[in-house]
């Protein structure tokens, strides 16, 4: 057998041999704590809530790190009416489960009125947004699956990264985190 053929065969065998070990390592890293975990009401998974938007507090319940990027779940407590711009996620489905208060949630061309106990699903690549409506505090559980880079994006906003950015720079920041602006926030008549 020629030396070059022997070296190629050795490289192929090494790669094949490493596959089970790489898979085991990845699965072990993903499972983390085999007992699972509990995040109490009004608490954050890491013990530190964030505020990416004025009048809004996010409590991470399941971090992307917990699921090897499989999902990101957070509770949003909102005082201020309104919500984010109309946007599209490239590779992430999103859902909203209302815990308290009332929200308008637009997915594609349909706008739903959602109250406590209601869930709305928004598939990836479909424009969507939502808005808290009415007075008082409202709470909604939001999930991204897979997690994408949304958790990182919200942390950056909470740290003030976008505070002095131009709209073009904000658009680039969004795209770098897997989504883009496609329209304005929901408009509605305040009661």
Average pLDDT metric: 85
**What's the architecture of the largest domain in CATH terms?**
Sandwich
Structural class of the secondary elements? Answer: alpha+beta
Low-pLDDT runs: 20-29
What descriptors fit this protein?
single chain, globular, five-stranded antiparallel β-sheet, Cupin_2, three-stranded antiparallel β-sheet, 25% helix, Jelly Rolls, alpha+beta
Overview of the molecule:
- The protein has 191 residues and is an alpha+beta fold.
- It is 25% helix and 32% strand.
- It folds into 2 domains: 1-31; 56-183, Jelly Rolls (Sandwich).
- The protein has helices at residues 3-31, 150-158, 167-176, and strands at residues 56-62, 72-78, 86-89, 93-100, 102-107, 110-115, 119-122, 128-133, 138-145, 179-183.
- The strands form 3 sheets. A 5-stranded antiparallel sheet has the order 1-2-9-4-7, with no helix packed on it. A 3-stranded antiparallel sheet has the order 6-5-8, with no helix packed on it. A two-stranded antiparallel sheet has the order 3-10.
- The longest helix has 29 residues, at 3-31.
- The model is unreliable at 20-29 (pLDDT under 50).
Concise account of the structure shown:
Pfam families: Cupin_2. This protein has 191 residues and is α+β, with helices and mostly antiparallel strands. It is built from 3 helices and 10 strands.
Which helices and strands appear, and what pairs or packs with what?
Layout: H1 3-31, E1 56-62, E2 72-78, E3 86-89, E4 93-100, E5 102-107, E6 110-115, E7 119-122, E8 128-133, E9 138-145, H2 150-158, H3 167-176, E10 179-183
Antiparallel strand pairs: 1-2, 2-9, 3-10, 4-7, 4-9, 5-6, 5-8
Protein name: Cupin domain-containing protein
Domain Cupin type-2: 84-141
Signal peptide: 1-25
């Amino acid at each position: 057998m020629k030396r070059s053929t022997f070296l190629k065969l050795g490289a192929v065998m090494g790669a094949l041999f490493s596959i089970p070990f790489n898979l085991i390592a990845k699965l072990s890293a993903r499972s983390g704590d085999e007992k699972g975990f509990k995040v109490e009401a009004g608490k954050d998974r890491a013990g530190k809530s964030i505020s990416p938007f004025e009048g809004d507090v996010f409590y991470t319940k399941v971090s992307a790190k917990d699921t090897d990027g499989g999902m990101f779940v957070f509770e949003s407590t909102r005082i201020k009416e309104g919500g984010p711009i109309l946007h599209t996620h490239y590779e992430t489905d999103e859902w909203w489960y209302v815990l308290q208060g009332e929200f308008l949630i637009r997915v594609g061309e349909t706008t739903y009125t959602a109250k406590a106990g209601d869930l709305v699903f928004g598939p990836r690549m479909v424009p969507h947004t939502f808005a808290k409506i009415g007075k008082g505090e409202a709470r909604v559980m939001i999930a991204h699956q897979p997690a994408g880079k949304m958790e990182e994006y919200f942390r950056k906003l909470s740290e003030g990264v976008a505070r002095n950015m131009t709209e073009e720079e904000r658009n680039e920041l969004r795209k770098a985190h897997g989504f883009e602006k496609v329209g304005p926030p929901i408009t509605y008549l305040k009661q």
